[in-house]
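ESCALATION

Customer reports they have been waiting on this structure for their group meeting. Please prioritize. Original submission:
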Amino acid sequence: MKPRRIILIPTFNEVQNIQPLYDSIRSECSYDMMFIDDNSPDGTALRIQNLMETDPGVQLLKRKTKEGLGQAYREAFGMVHESGRWDRIFMMDADLSHQPIHIKEIDSALDDHAFVVGSRYLRGVSVLNWSIIRLNLSYGANRYIRLITGMPFSDCTSGFRGFHADLLPLLLSTDIKSSGYAFLVETLYDVWKNGTDICEVPIVFVERTSGDSKVSMQVFAESLLTPLRLRIKSLFV
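Update from on-call: job pushed to the front of the queue and completed.
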């Protein structure tokens, strides 16, 4: 039987990007989509609801408050696990920085692996429209994460991922503390420590052209502290 697939897409104030993202995904695949909206005040949820009127493969998980990327994904993981409808789950950003052309490449890798990360750094640097400062921060952060945690991956902070649904109980049972983008580091670490078969595939990352970045100093600080916390935790487990 052909695997059933769903793409999880967290949103906050992404009204300008919803339609072009939807069109781009639909030009590549017919997979189901679940948008997880953190009560955006700009009408993002309404734009998604308009898509739902003509496409039964689109769903909206509307949250009451903005609690960060980690909590949005955890709630979506719970809904997907409870439904039992899907075999493969994909994670991607709503700001068009993750190119839908790579979805099927990640999906193809899932034929042989349990968890797949779309990497910006697997074959050199594949990032467009970033300043040299931001690029150095991201690349350096990944080197720091590898050094502290021992993870062997080139891009521990990538949010473009796919995995098999049988990993959902693990992702829901682990004591994940991060709420922001450090959630991506922490989930990858927990899956890796579990002995899961993980691989990376190269992607091209394109900086957003519409809307505002969600990376704040608080989010950046959490991303730096999380690897240290994970390392310390590993010494007592």
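Sent to customer with the following note: Residues 132-149 form the longest helix (18 residues).
Escalation resolved.
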